[in-house]
């Protein structure tokens, strides 16, 4: 009986009354229709969302392929103070970035210039990342979106299967607050409503990520944007080491609001099938460097002993 009622309700609520895409946390049933189109139905909004090279994915560490070409990412302009505007765009908070900020190296095969950064999070510091590692979801994930420098816009870059390079960083809960995030977190109070923005106090991208020598281990795969249109144009670089933020700092993001006035929480797309794709890992580079350092220290001590 209960099962029957459930199916009847499910059928009654099968259609969306609006063609706006949204996260699962925003989908509710009103008068027999969904208020917006949730992730399971995004292919109705953008057909590409149903294709086979979608993001995010679950990264299975046992199955990664070590790729010695995955040298460290070279960051340009990440140390510079930027005068940035942070916006609540109704789906996330986004910061527009100056195009003088660039990345190269890391077997990317081109220079990519920054466009914007944004975040995906859970609810009050609970799991909410998009990518997962061996099934584990982190509390938040940062995406720094870059395009091949030969293009003039994201719209142009997404027509190329490697037109976009996104750097993904996980966060983890730390006992102490990460004061480098004070500017961003304090600004959230001023942009609780969609369509509002505020200028951030002085901040550099290096303040938001980890020291570069802690970013040598990363995963690489070919995927898509994680919001509609879901364009399969992204070279993904997902770093292994997580950025620390306190529970309070992570929870501050849950005070933002969606356009329907409900808390902006669980702003992630569920993981997508990996299909034939391999995930590569930069691990051997780090291994080689440590092996060389180890060997050279052994030789140095031998040399010191024999002299
Ligand atoms: C739901 O239906 C009721 C009665 O027909 C109507 O008054 C109300 O505005 C509808 N709500 C929405 C969100 O469409
Ligand atoms: C942000 O909001 C606070 C009040 O909550 C206000 O004092 C401050 O001036 C605002 N900042 C900006 C840059 O608008
Ligand atoms: C910020 O908001 C103001 C007022 O709504 C708007 O005029 C301006 O274009 C916005 N700036 C950015 C960078 O989104
Ligand atoms: C992963 O490495 C293999 C070689 O082991 C290579 O053929 C493939 O193109 C690499 N994939 C990515 C996404 O870099
Ligand atoms: Zn994203």
**Residue windows where pLDDT falls under 50 for at least 5 positions:** 1-9
CATH topology of the largest domain: Carbonic Anhydrase II
How much helix is in the residues?
10-25%
Gyration radius, in Å: 21 Å
Task: Please identify, by name, the CATH architecture of the largest domain.
Answer: Roll
Mean of residue pLDDT values: 91
SSE succession:
HEEEHEEEEEEEEEEHEHEHEEEHEH
Protein traits:
single chain, 307 residues, alpha+beta, Carbonic Anhydrase II, 13-stranded mixed β-sheet, three-stranded mixed β-sheet, 7 helices, 19 strands, disordered N terminus, binds 2-acetamido-2-deoxy-beta-D-glucopyranose, binds zinc ion
Textual characterization of the structure:
- The chain has 307 residues and is an alpha+beta fold.
- The chain has two domains: 45 residues, no CATH class; 253 residues, Alpha carbonic anhydrase (Carbonic Anhydrase II, Roll), CATH 3.10.200.10.
- The strands form three sheets. Strands 5, 6, 7, 8, 9, 10, 13, 14, 15, 16, 17, 18 and 19 form a 13-stranded mixed β-sheet that branches. Strands 1-3-2 form a three-stranded mixed β-sheet, with no helix packed on it.
- Strand 11 and strand 12 form a beta hairpin.
- The N and C termini lie far apart (88 Å).
């Amino acid at each position: 009986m209960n099962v029957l009622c459930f199916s009847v309700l499910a059928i009654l609520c099968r259609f969306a009354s609006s063609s706006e895409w949204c996260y699962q946390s925003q989908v509710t049933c009103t008068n027999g229709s969904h208020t917006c189109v949730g992730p399971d139905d995004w292919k109705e909004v953008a057909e590409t969302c149903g294709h086979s090279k979608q993001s995010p994915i679950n990264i299975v560490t046992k199955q990664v392929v070590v790729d010695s070409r995955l040298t460290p990412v070279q960051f340009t302009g990440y140390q510079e103070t930027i005068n940035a505007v942070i916006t609540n765009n109704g789906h996330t908070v986004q910061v527009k970035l100056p195009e003088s900020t660039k990345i190269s190296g890391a077997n990317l095969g081109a220079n990519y210039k920054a466009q914007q950064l944004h975040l995906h999070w859970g609810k009050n510091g609970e799991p909410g990342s998009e990518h997962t590692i061996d099934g584990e979801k982190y509390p938040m994930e940062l995406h720094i979106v870059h395009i091949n420098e030969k293009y003039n816009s994201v719209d142009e870059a997404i027509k190329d299967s490697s037109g976009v390079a996104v750097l993904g960083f996980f966060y983890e809960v730390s006992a102490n607050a990460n004061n480098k995030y004070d500017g961003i977190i304090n600004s959230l109070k001023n942009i609780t409503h969609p369509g509002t923005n505020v200028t951030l106090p002085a901040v550099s991208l290096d303040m938001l990520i980890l020291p570069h020598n802690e970013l040598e281990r990363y995963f690489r795969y070919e995927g898509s944007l994680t919001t509609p249109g879901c364009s399969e144009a992204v070279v993904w670089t997902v770093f292994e080491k997580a950025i620390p933020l306190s529970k309070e700092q992570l929870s501050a993001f849950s005070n933002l609001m969606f356009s329907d006035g409900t808390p902006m929480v669980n702003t992630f797309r569920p993981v997508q099938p990996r299909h034939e794709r391999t995930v590569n890992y930069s691990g051997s580079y780090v291994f080689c460097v440590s092996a060389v350092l180890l060997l050279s220290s052994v030789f140095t001590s031998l040399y010191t002993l024999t002299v």
